[in-house]
Design goal:
With 143 residues, the chain is mainly beta. It has a single domain, classed as Sandwich (Immunoglobulin-like). The chain is 15% helix and 37% strand. Strands 2, 3, 5, 6 and 7 form a five-stranded antiparallel β-sheet that branches. Strands 4-1-8 form a three-stranded mixed β-sheet, with no helix packed on it.
Length: 143
């Protein structure tokens, strides 16, 4: 194999690696009411699944009123995030009268939940190549 082919193959390999650049997303969660239970974090990459069927999810034990959770090796693109403070660890959002949530929740862009979850469009944000972060403020509506 001559030197010219090796250089061309090397450049092509670098281009392929650059096209597959991966991203890391740090989700900063603020205003957790207490350190009971877990937080369930859902990451969504399509509007059809939001917020019912997660593309990628994590369950993390609550240790503080502010926490960070990292999603690694994501493709750059548009995503939305939902967070549930599952205080009793039943993996479900507990609801009271009229479907009012008994546990804390939050969405990317701090999109508001009005008579149900926000749309993907309202919670959508872009993950570029490299590292990025978002902050979600938890909401509690009562017990």
């Amino acid at each position: 194999m001559n030197a010219g082919r090796i250089v061309v193959m090397g450049v092509a390999l670098i281009a392929v690696i650059a096209c597959k650049a991966q991203s890391n997303l740090i989700v900063k969660i603020q205003n957790l009411k207490n350190s009971n239970g877990d937080i369930l974090i859902g990451l969504y990459d399509t509007p059809t699944n939001f917020p019912r069927k997660v593309s990628t999810g994590k369950v993390v034990k609550v240790t503080d009123k502010e926490m960070e959770v990292t999603f690694e090796d994501l493709r750059p693109g548009d995503y939305a995030v939902s967070v549930l403070h599952d205080e009793n660890q039943n993996k479900d959002m507990d609801q009271g009268t009229l479907g009012i949530p008994k546990e804390g929740f939050g969405f990317s862009n701090n999109a508001k939940a009005v008579m149900g979850p926000p749309s993907f469009r309202k919670a959508r944000f872009h993950v570029p190549s490299g590292d990025s972060s978002i902050t979600i403020d938890m909401k509690y509506m009562g017990k």
